[in-house]
Amino acid sequence: MSVIRSFKASDMFKFNNVNLDIWTETYNIGFYLHYLSRWPDLCCVQEAPSGRMMGYVIGKAEGQGSEWHGHVTAITVAPEYRRLSLARKMMSLLELVSDETYRGFFVDLYVRCNNFVAIDMYEGMGYSVYRRVREYYGNLGVGKGGRDEEDAFDMRKPLSRDSARRSVRSNGRDIVVSAHDVS
Amino acid sequence: MSVALDRQIRPIYDALDTGSHKSAITECNKVLKKHPKNALVKALKALALVRYQKVEEALVLCDEVLESKPTDDSTLNAMMHVLRGLGRHKDMITMYDAAYKKQPTNEELGAQTFFANVRASNWKSAQQVASKMYKQFQEDRYLYWNVMSNVLQANDNNTPVEMRTLLYKLALRLITSAPTPSSVHSDRFYLHLTVLRELSEYDEAMTLLETPAGRNICETNLACNEIRRDLMRSRGALEEEGKRAEQRILEKGDRNWLEFLSVIDGTFASLPESKGEAHAGPSEDAKEQCSSKISNTLALFTNISVQDGRKDRSGLLGLLELEHRARRHGVSTDTVRLLHLLKRYFETFGDKACCFEDLKPYLGLEGNDLAAWTEVLQACPSSLSTVEAVQRTINSHKLSRYNLSASELTVDAETSRAALYISQYLEGLPLGRNFPTTELQYVDDLAILAGSVFVNLWKMGGDIKYLYKAVVLLEFALSKSEQAFQIRLMLIRIYRLLGAPSVALEHYRLLRIKQVQNDTLSHFILSRCSTFSLAASGDLTLTSECLESSQIYVSNSQETNDYVIRAFSAEKYSQIPQFILFEDWLENSLQRDITKLEYLRMRITHEVISSDIIDLELIELKFVFDRLHHDNRDFEILPNYQPKSVEDFNTQTLLFGKSEGHGWVWSFLKSYIKVFSQASDLSDVVEEKLLVGDRPQISPKLGSLKERLARREKEEMAELTPDELSLISYTDALTEWLEPFHDYVRPPASVVLADVAKNTELKTGLPLRGVDITPPLNGHVKKEEETPPITDAPEDLIKFFENMKIRFEAAKNAGHLNEALHIATIAQEAFLLFVTETIRFKPASVVKIHKLGNLVAKFKPIRAVGIAVLKEMTIALESMSTQEGTSERRREFVDACGFESSEIDHDSIMNIIKRIGK
Lengths: 183, 918
Known about the structure:
- The complex is a heterodimer of chains A (183) and B (918).
- Chain A has 183 residues and is an alpha+beta fold.
- Chain A is built from five helices and eight strands.
- Chain A has helices at residues 16-19, 29-38, 86-100, 116-124, 147-150, and strands spanning 3-6, 43-47, 53-62, 69-77, 106-112, 128-134, 152-158, 176-178.
- By secondary structure, chain B is an all-alpha fold.
- Among the domains of chain B are: 3-133 and 145-176, Serine Threonine Protein Phosphatase 5, Tetratricopeptide repeat; 515-558 and 586-647 and 658-680, no CATH class.
- Chain B is built from 46 helices and no strands.
- Chain B is globular, with a radius of gyration of 33 Å.
- The mean pLDDT of chain B is 91.
- Classes of the chains: A alpha+beta (183), B mainly alpha (918).
- The interface between A and B is large, with 52 and 62 residues.
- Chain B: It comes from Lentinula edodes (Shiitake mushroom).
- Chain B: Belongs to the MDM20/NAA25 family.
């Protein structure tokens, strides 16, 4: 439960309680404005009744032909608002818009291979691993995750337009590509 | 262009792309030897020169190219970058305008002309260009560009109010004339709705919203849905909106809190929002009607809360909000419902971190209610064996602390609270024993609570030992939970209170503040940082911190505008006003200029005060003085768990108990502008001639500079510390005293300009543009009038340093280190401003020609006292700092902390005090 509204440029003045968390990157101004100037309907904020920011999602639509899809670039929830299913709600909004407004075939996202909590959560939402991308992330230098820390799973969920479920495959975890091969 | 020439130009682009400006210039010169008239190469050379900081030379080339009225893409493009670099947006418009006139069928040129106007916020011309483009190219988007320009012009501060409606009407007429309906495109639809809302054309808006396309858009587009909701509210259709929201909640399982608020607003629609006491109160009829609706909503939310259980908070929170509003309207029928709901909420969601924040608005309890509620909280078993239990314990502490009355806030009571929180903290800590360093500990908030109590204890009696206790505890907690940024922020505040700025800075750097956060969070370290600056002895840590954190403003002015253009290209009209607002807030950020002033205050302590510094800073300060500031500073980020009966944590931990706001900035700006403009030879005439680039738009409401400088408002002064206040009256007295003499001695504009022209020519080998003055024959212009009568220095000025000395002694003897430092810094600043004010009268020839010997004689004693006082302060400060650093003081500190827990050991306390001592 929270207020769900569109992400506004001036939210950059308000997102400190979300972004000071180590897992959330603060990008340059241009990053946020770029997304807002192209896909404002794929960027949304969750706010507590007090007006405090709880989390946000930033997404885009991309790809050619049957690869046309919605992509989750960043999704984050402030530490004090975790375990309230906020991410789930933001994801379903992004799926709705990718489906109805953009008519994409699927939604995809990248997640660190060692982030089991997140992977479980996405699987619960209907996502599955499409491929493993080698060295997608820089090393955080914190854990001993080894390869799992730097590699990403590209996870996908088909939308209504992909009724034949061509955008997913069951052996995704075994398909490894290098970071250069993905956009 | 010939292939050969093309081949020669390529390396220029390459050099520019890789940032080798110097070799780009060399390449340009090579080509220009053979093709001295080539506009593109000239433009590229100008660009390289601008980037190489050779502005004067760039200007000459730039003007040559502009005169040739280029039309080819590459030259225009290069020139666009040159003109942007020079801040000459108006010239950019002229350039594109001319090019587009020559080739009216060139769509790209039309778009660039439009964008040039957008960059300069020249909405009226933008609108004309868009209109011309629509006629020529018949593309709907140009029609909407025109609409958007109208809307932006209407929103512009400088547009008279009576014009606004007219502009919106024009915009509406344009939209309705479009061949395709706005609803084919969600952002066009959004723009259409904005225009209708501004014109209060609600019926027309509703018709649009009721179309299938309109409904579809609102279903998936949050921005459009937001404006739809807004429209419903504006037209007073709260009930209708409430019904719609109810349907969404029931049928779609929507749990957006906005829908719940709509239901509640609908419930109370028949009762007017009570404003003030003079309100007559609603009629009995209206009350009755409302009561029946309340019971409906009550049933609805109750069902949802039962159905959702612990899955979602909306139902229960909705019930709380409903009861809260009913009480506010005086239509609540159940005296115990609020209490019951609070209790139920705490039982259901007490183990969620957000429970306290959720309940905070509803905690205004009194009397028996409060007693009963406190009982509920106290009954909460303070178990720390599971994560849920820890969270529940934390929430019960936060909730009961919030309502503590003054009588419950004694030193003893607070001390035992701190002890309880700490023991629970230590008890619960093992729950996160094996966490990686990236995880937050479950018990962090207990440490935050205890730290807050210590700060409150310090605030109550002024005993500094409580700050030491807070530091030790919070440092310990941070060592167990390295990513706990809230703890770090608290520590930064406390270290600054303790006069340990370098430790504070260390923590600040560990927060990895980036990008726009430099604007919202740098106040933590830069607020009044000149107090702690060691710039005078060569340590530039804080000055460079100021420069680094100010980089974001450069990025903003260079980049943000581009995205406005991009939003136009991509037709994302909903974003354009937002981007402009964002750019404006950052450009005119209050923190930006607080930082600027602190930087300047530190700069004059370590650089030789010369006319270069004075002139440059003066120009900048005058720009700053014309800004309408916006405060983007984030204070909310500091946790606050202080009782509502006392100041919040932020206020409690402000350095010198005062927050700098607009008033502080105005006060210091006025003083510095007064002093610098007297010391400078730059008059308005000279400035006008020499300034490159466009001037900022100034609101005519502000009044003349002189009037504005003279005004000192009470509210402005209220933001100053007593010593800052003395500095302000000191500078006022100083500038008032010396003004006539400065005006008498300052060379006339013609002499100054001739001087500058001569220097420029020496430097660039080219005459200065736009300045055509034959220098006067003998450099000195004979003064017609007599030397103004020499007056005695005003009392405020003579006594200033003595007074500061007395204040310094008092602070020192009371052991207030920070305050002593503050006073000494202000005294030093006053002295440096005195130096700045008197530079002009230094050369013996000036004194002789203008017969100012008697005046200069009056400077001497003031100077001498100033120097003596500053020396004494320096010696005193030095001895204070050695005393603080002794092992004896450390011993005292450890004793004062009085931590005897086995967890927080002696060594780590010792480490902390050593760092403070530094």
